[in-house]
Amino acid sequence: MTMEKRSKTGAEHLVDCLVAQNVDRIFCVPGESYLAVLNALSDVSDKVETITCRHEGGAAMMAEADAKLTGRPGICMVTRGPGATNASAGVHVAFQDSTPMILFIGQVGRDATEREAFQEIDYRRMFGQMAKWVAQIDSADRVHEFVSRAFAVAMAGRPGPVVLALPEDMLVDAVELVAPRVVKSFELSPSAEQMDEFARLLSEAERPLMIVGGSRWDDESKAAVEDFAGKNGLPVVAAFRRQEKFNNDHPSYVGEIGLGVNPTLSRLVKDSDLVILLGTRMGEVASSSYQFLSVPGPVQKLIHVHAGAEELGRVYIPDLSINATPQGFATMLTGLPVSKRKGWAERTAQARQEYEAWQEPRPVPGDVNMGDIIVWLRDNLPHDAIMTNGAGNFSAWLHRFHRHRKLQTQLAPTSGSMGYGVPAAVAAKLRFPDRPAVCIAGDGDFMMTCQEMATAVQYDAKPIFVVVDNGMLGTIRMHQETHYPSRPFATELVNPDFCVMASAFGAHTEFVNRTDEFADAFRRAEKSGKLALIHVKTDPDALTANRSLTQIREAALAR
After folding, report:
1. Which residues are bridge partners to 7 per DSSP?
2. In what order do the strands lie in the sheet with 320-323?
3. Of 358, 426, 415, residue with least CA distance to 388
4. Burial 380-394, CB ≥16 within 10 A → b, else e
5. Angle between helices 263-271 and 344-358 (to 10 degrees)
6. pLDDT confidence of 115, banded at 50, 70, 90?
7. Is residue 84 classed as helix, strand or coil in its secondary structure?
8. Which residue ranges form the domains of the chain, and what is each CATH number?
9. Is 171 helix (H, G, I), strand (E, B) or coil?
10. Percentage above 90 pLDDT, the chain
11. Does residue 113 carry a pLDDT above 90?
């Protein structure tokens, strides 16, 4: 049986590929370099929704956030030159966060390459270090091949971004191609011998610890790991901004390692005699600058389970390396015997008590305590609410005091990219319009992508933005006071009236300058039925949940 070939332009074949891969939404900023693709997309608007964003960085971050929620590659399209450079921030997030994503870039015509034509860039060189694969489709009869490979590469092993450049003249070439096939991801499972060795190492440990993170989790793998940890009395820690991988209400959950880590949790990790890394790379932030596990040979025995073979032994030399996805590994846990080792459950219970004590907000300078606000959100939002954030000291309040119970509830860049929370919340609300999506953003963080409120309004997405305003770039100011006390420079911000600004976009707005005002303000925002912004004015001295700006400065001066 022969498959029928169809004569279409390169752009039409590209769109056919997206439809075949079950893509139902793309994020873009239109450009003349890929007009043919936009024209082809107009013919499938009943199958693929095209979201026109206000900035390519916002578009790429929306695509990355959407991929975190679906497990399939997020799709972003931008024009050449400035469009591609603007989108690079989102590509970097996808790379460090191990998120499948494909960035399509309109490119100069093939007859103009290597002449520094208008907005010409060699994308292989530009994106080479921040993408799994970068290529240019120079022939329309290879569109299906390149796009299929892009989906396969983006999802395989450790997921990540792929970049494909599209010469504008290639997009209008007409060729005959066979209809594309859907690309499916596949799981990697450990061998029986590896699981026997896993069980042996675990049974010999007196103070084991599991650290979960990475991507490629699903509800079944999460439940299996939770069940295994609970039956064995194992303490479980989430890697930086990966709290959703394990139910934070579970008795075995003892906290997150990352910026501003709980000191008692640091001691727990360092005191362990066996560490199980499940799905996570255990990068610089999660490892407290590689202090938890020495490089290359940790003091603790180490079991590393990761979907990317290239990550095993890359930084740490494990006692047992298992090339497996969380799903593939978790299915094998169910067959292991429950350990009878004494002391595990007691150690875990103590760590759990210390985690819960860490979640009790302390008094801070000023009339607003962000710890109390996050605790209120934690206790009043449904468990499927999606929390998003970018980067800044404000995010530490969210990570410390909130609890994630389910997957697909945390959109937070492990890459530490400012500006991520706003587009992520828009993407979340587009993907799950019936679930709450709440963005916690700092004032500097919010201003980087606030224009995407217009995108939200245009496509009827209604997240709630909580803008935490202390009039400074707080993280950098903290570092300044630590290293150069009493010499702040270039970190003060003159902000707009955020409520007036959001009102211009058609948002419901609230202003809060006392903790006890927040609950009613949030309820009014929910009931408004609109995009909403809550401007929370905080005291600049309330810089962290543990120490004030004044205390940080005084400690530095006393050294």
Report:
1. 176
2. 253-256, 236-238, 208-212, 274-278, 301-306, 320-323
3. 426
4. ebeeebbbbbbbbbb
5. 160
6. confident
7. helix
8. 5-178 (3.40.50.970), 192-357 (3.40.50.1220), 360-557 (3.40.50.970)
9. helix
10. 91
11. no
The three state secondary structure string of 5-64 is: EEEEEHHHHHHHHHHHCCCCEEEECCCHHHHHHHHHHHCCCCCCEEEECCCHHHHHHHHH
Quickly state the pLDDT bin for 339 (edges 50, 70, 90): confident
Asked if 57 and 449 touch (Cβ cutoff 8 Å), the reply is: yes
Report how far Cα 270 is from the mean position of its chain's Cα atoms.
Answer: 27
| Tokens standing for residue 400 | 């410390």
Where are the strands (E) in 414-494, listed by range? 437-442, 464-469
3 state DSSP class of 209: strand
- In Å, the largest CA–CA distance within the chain is 82
Cβ within 8 Å of residue 406, ≥6 positions away: 244, 247, 383, 384
Tens of pLDDT, residues 151-204:
999 999 999 999 999 999 999 999 999 989 999 999 999 999 999 999 999 999
pLDDT digits (tens, 9 = 90+) for 15-54: 999 999 999 999 999 999 999 999 999 999 999 999 999 9
pTM of the model: 0.95
> 125 by DSSP, 3-state: which?
helix
Q: Exposed e or buried b for every residue in 350-369, given b needs 16+ CB within 10 A?
A: ebbebbeebbebeebbbebb
- 232 close to 344: Cβ distance less than 8 angstroms: yes
The DSSP 8-state label assigned to residue 492 in this structure reads B
Give burial (CB, 10 Å; 0-12/13-18/19+) of 325: buried
Instruction: Return d(Cα 243, Cα 266) in angstroms, integer.
Output: 16
Higher-confidence residue of 559 and 298: namely 298
List the beta bridge partners of residue 164.
104, 135
- Residue for token digits 């996808």? 94
| 312-331 confidence digits (pLDDT tens) | 999 999 999 999 999 999 99
CA–CA separation, 277 and 9 (whole Å): 47
Strands 5-9 and 174-178: antiparallel
Cβ atoms 425, 388 nearer than 8 A: yes
CA distance 10 to 43: 15
The pLDDT tens digits for 191-250 are: 999 999 999 999 999 999 999 999 999 999 999 999 999 999 999 999 999 999 999 999
For 442-481, the pLDDT digits (tens) are 999 999 999 999 999 999 999 999 999 999 998 999 999 9
